């Protein structure tokens, strides 16, 4: 996971030999969740997963979070745990604004009790002096406004020096850990919460609500100022009010997307409850179960791994998913042992 342009796709291409599109302009390139080509590391088969970054130019943060959550929830439904999550942060950023702070909090809440399997990856060290980079790194580690709460909960911070050796060392920190279930996976799959009801979704919604109130207040203050302003100032205020109105509309639309997502998920849960199997009573008690033919009672989504569309338990592999996206993060899973070897895990 991580913001747009934080180097997630570059990291994945460097390690896997994939050809994921890398952004060079102002627009984001990763629009959907993408899997890398598999590669071997320490005898394990690794797959990295690239997820779209927050503050995307084409999708809202609510849409991005929905994409990431849908993907990792389906993995969990298919009985695949995640090996870990990587969150990318540019050390070259001279300030960490409100949106970036919110995204860090979303990442924290998305992982929850699985934070010991999360790594914060600082990169783009070549764009700053060593002294400045170390000073920023120290503040990121120790300041409660940034990554200090996440690190105190078990996450670790690593530097990526834009080399293959550096990238391999980071991924090794993940593939040798016992896979954990993310907090948001339990919330969505086990507790049947909507995205807006999850801890991570709640962080996003509260931030949007605060933005809405801020824009409304600023608009009202500028309208009052216009009553006593001269013609030149009035024109400047008018343009600023128009800008504020456009931003307010964007925030409200994003909040509505979260609400619609919540309503859609509730409707789907009701549909699944209606299709729950019914018990047939007999004079000896409950004899069996009745269900619609071909119905998936659990509502689970099958994720194929082999060419035939079925999980290949015979292959001793360990996949690691790296999402961008808390993504973008690295996500990974299953540790079944097959013929004395470790099983597949997606990260």
UniProtKB/TrEMBL annotation:
Q: Where is this region: Disordered?
A: 259-347
Q: In this entry, which stretches build a coiled coil?
A: none
> Domain G, which positions?
1-60
Record's compositionally biased regions (Basic and acidic residues): 259-276, 308-321, 334-347
Which InterPro entries does the entry link to? GTP-bd (IPR006073), P-loop_NTPase (IPR027417)
**One MF term from GO for this chain?**
GTP binding
Q: Which domain of life is it from?
A: Eukaryota
The record, for Pfam families, names: MMR_HSR1
Q: Spell out the protein name for this chain.
A: G domain-containing protein
Traced from the root, the source organism's taxonomic lineage reads:
Eukaryota, Fungi, Dikarya, Basidiomycota, Agaricomycotina
